[in-house]
Design goal:
By secondary structure, this protein is an alpha+beta fold. The protein has one domain: PurM-like C-terminal domain (Phosphoribosyl-aminoimidazole Synthetase, Chain A, domain 2, Alpha-Beta Complex), CATH 3.90.650. The protein has twelve helices and 14 strands. The strands form three sheets. The chain has a seven-stranded mixed β-sheet. Strands 1-2-5-3-4 form a five-stranded mixed β-sheet. The chain has a two-stranded antiparallel ribbon with strand order 7-8. The chain is globular and about 55 Å long. 48% of the residues are buried. The mean pLDDT is 94.
């Protein structure tokens, strides 16, 4: 039976991607992100990672149309986070970044959009620079595509470098290793406001189940042939349990974990890192070989996830597949390092705790999630 998310045309398992993976020159296919050899620097690898803000631009578009207030700037945070943190999960240190903006100029105020994004990228890279992380913005591409794009899309590519001998592959994961989960909600020392924890995944389901049907009637460009909007909220509706509006919660920028990751890598030997984006808490299934991941100490999900589950009536099993459920990043280390990792994260005011452990499996990777909501099992 298809999940609520799949009914909207989103394939969480990304069927077909394997055809592209087969032709990559990835040196470590079991690692989180592809690494290719640097032909000019023997012993070094290059990571070119591309990702975007998902369908968050649709939410910012509705917000702008309904309130007149621009909510485009923080999409830059999303795009940078989705790229630099994925690269860092294999030990890559980002060096340069480029963006890609596709826009329908008949629907979106292009100059205002680009001005806001420029402000956002400048702010994000300045923040990283203050943390001692130099990522050069190398330009990008802006395309007017009214016949292809309904509103607009924002994505980017990061170039990172890593010594091949230091790539974090997941090959060394052993029974007894612990999984440290870093929270996606709250407010870190380098963020300007409280974060809902939503990141960039599951936004299609979130906006369809939360936003009112009238928006699709007014702006048919925000929907498709799939199931329409069926929510009970306006974009600026204040929701007590969220302590903010629906629009603000959905547009809450994806946390950038890079400053925490780089400090952790200086202090302990990391076996694996998983950025819980597409695939949610099941993302770990792609890392390592013959590992049973047991997550039996997960924190209470942030309120936004409980609201989405209640309004969409998605099963909890599928919620864990589609959303990060409050854990944006997982770091796998030997048990003796768990306090060190947690202390580093909490120094940045990002909550961290041991959420599970690794066991030996047979016949491929598997995952067991045990929570007060039940027990859920997943396999590759």
């Amino acid at each position: 039976m298809a999940s609520r998310y799949e009914e909207l045309g989103v394939d969480v398992s990304k069927k077909g991607v394997e055809f592209l993976k087969r032709i990559t020159d990835d040196v470590f296919p079991e690692a989180f992100s592809p690494v290719v050899k640097d032909s000019l620097n023997p012993g070094w690898g290059i990571i070119l990672h591309t990702d975007g803000a998902g369908t968050k631009p649709v939410v910012s578009y509705v917000y702008y149309k309904e309130t007149g207030e621009e909510k485009f700037e923080t999409l830059a945070d999303d795009v940078v986070a989705m790229n630099v943190d994925d690269a860092a999960c294999v030990g890559g240190v980002p060096a340069a970044f480029s963006d890609y903006v596709a826009v329908n100029p008949f629907k979106v105020p292009k100059q205002e959009l680009l001005k806001s994004l420029a402000k956002g990228f400048s702010r994000v890279f300045s923040m990283l620079r203050e943390k001692g992380i130099e990522v050069f913005f190398s330009g990008g591409e802006t395309a007017d595509l009214p016949d292809i794009v309904r509103t607009f899309d924002v994505s980017g590519t990061v170039m990172a470098r890593v010594e091949l001998s230091k790539v974090i592959t997941g090959r060394d994961i052993s029974p007894g290793d612990v999984i440290i989960g870093l929270r996606s909600g709250g407010r870190s020392t380098y963020e300007e406001k409280e974060n809902s924890g939503i990141m960039c995944n599951g936004i299609t389901l979130a906006r369809h189940c939360l936003l009112a049907k009238e928006y699709l009637d007014k702006y048919p460009e925000i929907g498709s042939e799939a199931k329409g909007y069926y929510g009970r909220f306006k974009i600026d509706s204040f929701v007590d349990e969220l302590n903010t509006s629906i629009g603000e919660a959905l547009l809450s920028p994806t946390r950038i974990y890079l400053p925490i990751i780089l400090e952790v890598l200086k202090s302990v030997k990391v076996k694996a890192m998983i950025h819980n984006t597409g695939g949610g808490l099941t993302k770990c299934l792609k890392i390592g070989r013959d590992i049973r991941y047991v997550k039996d100490n997960l924190p209470e999900p942030d309120p936004i996830f409980r609201l989405i589950q209640a309004e969409s009536r998605e099963t909890l099993r599928n919620m864990y597949r589609s959303f990060n459920m409050g854990i944006g990043l997982e770091i796998i280390v030997e048990k003796k390092y768990e306090d060190t990792v947690a202390d580093i994260s909490e120094k940045f005011h990002v909550g961290a705790q041991t959420i599970g452990k690794c066991e030996k499996s047979s016949g491929g990777n598997s995952l067991i999630i045990i929570s007060k909501d039940g027990k859920f099992e997943y396999r590759v």
